[in-house]
TrEMBL record:
Membrane-spanning residues: 61-83, 95-114, 126-152, 158-182, 194-214, 269-294, 463-488, 508-527
Keyword Transmembrane helix: yes
Protein name from the UniProt record: Uncharacterized protein
Species annotation: Phytophthora nicotianae (Potato buckeye rot agent)
Keywords of this entry: Membrane, Transmembrane, Transmembrane helix
Length: 585
């Protein structure tokens, strides 16, 4: 007996399919634009991370995570302990402020020079040269600011912004005088690396400049509309992340850290400042709800990526279900290295989109470096011309840090000895007699997908860990800074003065801190149980091996953005500059 289908049921089914297809397209589009999908680990970075996981103790990892914001916070507090004079007394009476400004510029220049040494390995940037460059640049910057104060008035309006142009010119001239013109010529082999450094600097300066503007928009908005400004923050974060992702494509391995410690650091600081200044429970609830919603979306995307990896693990004949249920924290890295080190043994012929070498040399042992050199001869993985071979700089730059990292003996054989790497002489590219071509193709597809998804999973998890870590430490740093400032004489020059302190606002931020810590712990447990590797080791790996970049971002946010509204910096976004009128009267 034939079954008749009712036309209305067919229409309903078609509508549901169209709706499901539309939602699926929207979800795929959303997933594609996330930071976690904007890149993936290189093989070299996986080797470096695995080396760190096997050498860094848990105590070391915890200390790295806890102490990362401490140097910048300590410097910010020491600067606030330098008692400032009333700006109305004039520029000559505020000599302590000029010392403070000199110290700030000196520190920031030092941070920039350490990054230059990291990104341009062929440039002889010694510690002595860094001290000389920083001293000269900071002295000229302060001299220019004093001259403006004598001619225009004190405080100098937007002194940190106005001094940016002479700062850049002075720095460029001093660098040429220090290193000569040769490294900066068009045909210089260092030009590519210098371009990376310049792009890195421009991106950071652009993002730093946007933060005060967003703060002003919030301050000038009516009280009823401030919640709307808070809702605009995710839009700004999205645009900023896309901008950073595209601008920093040549530093793909560093994108999670660059995005996190610029975009997310500044946005979290903005939320903390808004919650502190308003003291509103509604503002606190709004900030928490927005954070939870976007965190859940990120977790969902990460889980999709992880499920793909684990489905491939279950299909792998070498990894039984019982093994997956009893994995150790290094198992995911172990499997990835087993496949990436032996691509032809897993029927992988070509993966041009997977980078063998990282964007810049990473800390790895000599054994692992030999593995990468052997893999380079197979022509399986892609590479970029700027860093396609292991140079002398690659080895020498990390030789000393590696010895420090080796806190306990590590056997490379645990994840596949050098001898197991397939070479051209014993190539397995021809079909094996005992296996059909269909099975070979299916196995190759699984292995290639496993490599791609696994590298992307590590990239995505690193970004999420960095973001959650930042959302924990920024409110803590902000509250600690405000608590100390409230006890010091300089508080009278901060917005609202001593009367601007609200205990209720501190309680709201403490509530946010508790939420963020819980969120980080949930992510830690999720990654350990389901994704099979240690999240804290991965986080500490970023904080320690990218120390120059991390500390530069933390110092900028802590010693510039935290106190940028103190009267002496002249940051009057109303453009009224009332102190000039008071002086003229």
């Amino acid at each position: 007996m034939a079954v008749q289908t009712h036309p209305e049921n067919v229409k309903d089914s078609g509508a549901l399919n169209r709706e499901s297809s539309f939602l699926s397209r929207v979800e795929n589009k959303w997933n594609a634009i996330q930071v976690g999908r904007q890149g993936e680990y290189s093989i070299e970075r996986v080797e470096s991370l695995d080396h760190y996981c096997k050498t860094a103790t848990k105590t070391r990892v915890l200390l790295v995570c806890i102490l990362t914001p401490v140097p910048a916070l300590a410097v910010a507090i020491m600067l606030e302990m330098m008692p400032l004079q009333d700006p109305s007394k004039g520029w000559d009476a505020n000599w302590i402020f000029w010392i403070r400004l000199t110290v700030i510029i000196f520190i920031l220049t030092c941070m920039g020079m350490f990054q230059l040494r990291r990104l341009v390995l062929g440039l002889p940037v010694t510690f002595g040269k860094i001290m000389i460059i920083s001293s000269v640049v900071s002295a000229i910057f302060t001299g220019f600011a004093v001259l403006l104060a004598a001619l225009v008035g004190f405080p100098v309006p937007f002194v940190m912004v106005v001094g940016g142009i002479p700062f850049a010119i002075t720095l460029g001239v001093v660098l040429v005088l220090m290193f000569g013109i040769a490294p900066f010529r068009y045909n210089s082999p260092l030009r590519v690396h210098l371009a990376k450094f310049l792009q890195f600097l421009v991106v950071r300066l652009n993002l730093v400049a946007i933060y005060p503007l967003f703060k002003v928009l919030y301050a000038f908005a009516p009280a009823k509309s401030q919640g709307f400004v808070m809702l605009l923050l995710p839009v700004w974060k999205f645009v900023a992340k896309k901008y950073v992702g595209r601008a920093m494509r040549e530093l793909e391995d560093y994108i999670p850290q660059i995005v996190g410690f610029n975009v997310d650091y500044f946005s979290t600081l903005f939320v903390s400042v808004c919650m502190f200044s308003s003291g509103s429970v509604l503002m606190t609830v709004l900030a928490i709800v927005v954070d939870i919603v976007f965190s859940l979306l990120e977790y969902r995307e990460l889980q999709t990526n992880a499920n793909t990896v684990y489905n491939l693990l279950r299909d792998n004949k070498n990894w039984s279900k019982s093994h997956l249920c009893n994995h150790t924290s290094e198992d995911l890295l172990t499997l990835l290295l087993e496949v990436t080190r032996n691509p032809e043994a897993h029927d992988v012929i070509s993966l041009p989109n997977v980078r063998l070498w990282a964007c810049e040399p990473h800390p790895i042992s000599s054994d692992r470096l030999e593995i990468l050199k052997t893999l380079a001869t197979l022509d399986v993985y892609g590479f970029r011309p700027a860093h396609s071979t292991a140079s002398k700089a690659h080895i020498s730059f990390f030789s000393k840090p590696l010895r420090k990292l080796q806190t306990r003996r590590v056997s490379v054989a645990a994840t596949g000895p050098v001898s197991t790497v397939v070479t051209k002489s014993n190539s397995l590219r021809s079909p094996r007699a005992s296996v059909s071509n269909t099975q070979l193709i299916a196995g190759a597809d699984r292995s290639e997908t496993l490599i791609n998804q696994g590298l992307q999973l590590l990239f995505h998890s690193e970004y999420l860990l960095v973001v959650e870590y930042i959302e924990c430490i920024v409110p803590i740093v902000f509250v600690a800074y405000q608590l100390v400032l409230y006890q010091l004489p300089n508080v009278v020059y901060a917005p609202g003065g001593a009367e601007g302190w609200q205990s209720g606002a501190v309680e709201n931020i403490l509530l946010l801190i508790v939420l963020e810590v819980c969120s980080l712990l949930v992510l830690k447990v999720l990654l350990e149980r389901k994704f099979a590797f240690s999240p804290l080791h991965q986080l500490a790996y970023v904080l320690e091996t990218q120390l120059e970049h991390v500390q530069a971002d933390v110092f900028i946010a802590t010693i510039i953005l935290l106190p940028f509204e103190i009267n002496h910096f002249g940051m009057d976004f109303t453009f009224q500059f009332e102190w000039f009128r008071a002086t003229s009267e």
